[in-house]
């Protein structure tokens, strides 16, 4: 290499070269400390925003309302005994098709049967049954029972009036002390006569 001839060349710094110095432990530990602090900070300050900070809507407000499907409930909970065509099994499971209980003027009769079940001699369309109809008060909401009752009262060849969740809620409240199934004709027959 020849001697630099110009003063500008003499002023120049040597080319930089990469050193072999590792990142100082102190810097590494500060970075690690920051990471740990960041995780702790996220954890310590986690605050599920109260809806009052926004426009007061909660997750449920965005849900698409799903209305109860009587046909689906029937298939899931009643078909095993009362059969897909609602005609039951002769001598074992009474028919819902054409039944005086189902089509009673007051839909409350069927609501009561579905809420609390029946056990004991029950006459349906002139035939005697003595089985056990399970209760559903703890399985179905008022809306579900209304959908189910409407499905049965207007299907299977029946054409009785429909009901709604409010009426189911009222019947549920009126019969809340009923801890056992209705005793067949003995408990239920008077309901048909009274309306
Ligand atoms: C485990 C079998 C079983 C299931 C499940 C069942 N039932 Fe019943 N149900 C019966 C029996 C048995 C009787 C008659 C009770 C008696 O003899 O005292 C009956 C009676 C009835 C009656 C009054 C009599 C009639 O035929 O009209 C209605 C109404 C009724 N069930 C509706 C339903 C509905 C609605 C469901 C579904 C939510 C349902 N049942 C599920 C067995 C069942």
UniProtKB/TrEMBL annotation:
Which keywords label this protein? Electron transport, Heme, Iron, Membrane, Metal-binding, Transmembrane, Transmembrane helix, Transport
Which residues are listed as membrane-spanning? 26-43
Question: Which Pfam families does the annotation name?
Answer: Cytochrom_C
Ranges annotated as biased composition (Low complexity)? 1-11
Sequence segments annotated as region (Disordered): 1-22, 175-195
Q: Which PANTHER family match?
A: ALCOHOL DEHYDROGENASE CYTOCHROME C SUBUNIT, BLL4482 PROTEIN-RELATED
Descriptive protein name: Mono/diheme cytochrome c family protein
